[in-house]
User: What shape does this take?
Amino acid sequence: MPTDDIRDASDAILVVGVGRYRQEALAEAYRRHAGAVFALARRLLVDRAMAEEVVQEVFLRLWHRPDKFDPERGSLRSFLLAQTHGRSVDILRSEVSRRQREQRDARETAEADYDIEHAVVDLAVADDVRQAMAVLPAGERDAIELAYFGGHSYREVAALLEQPEGTVKSRIRSGLQRLRDALVETGITGPWAES
Assistant: This one.
């Protein structure tokens, strides 16, 4: 199939070409639909790298299993978007499950090692941390609270605060430095106080 014919071919013909391992057919399907697939994955996952991985997986699935597409049931774009949605939801569920597992493990570890002496020390330190957090600028305080107390990644904090990820990282870094200095002034020491 010449290149000019590929550009004029219907999506159903392209999928037949993909089924015959014609790379140019897959390339044309990608040219036509990758933008929409990426946009949906990015909207669902927020993370650009994860969205790019989903795009790659969706088109790889098309390459390996073109017979899954049935032109009688809808357009190729609809088929690819359905695949994108399903894969994105799987990733989101996996992330939520991983986070819950980590939180459960942390709770169980904390509960196993907890005693009254630790409780008293923790309360005293928590009060000092609360006071030190109160003097931070609002942007730094919000970013730190979401990242460290809310359990969000930098990427998630950036999305929640509607700020660029670099700005969020910078605010967290400067806020942690201020927090460290304030805690050292109050006499609280730890491995972080030595840096």
Notes: The mean pLDDT is 85. Residues 154 and 169 are 7 Å apart (CA to CA). The radius of gyration is 25 Å.
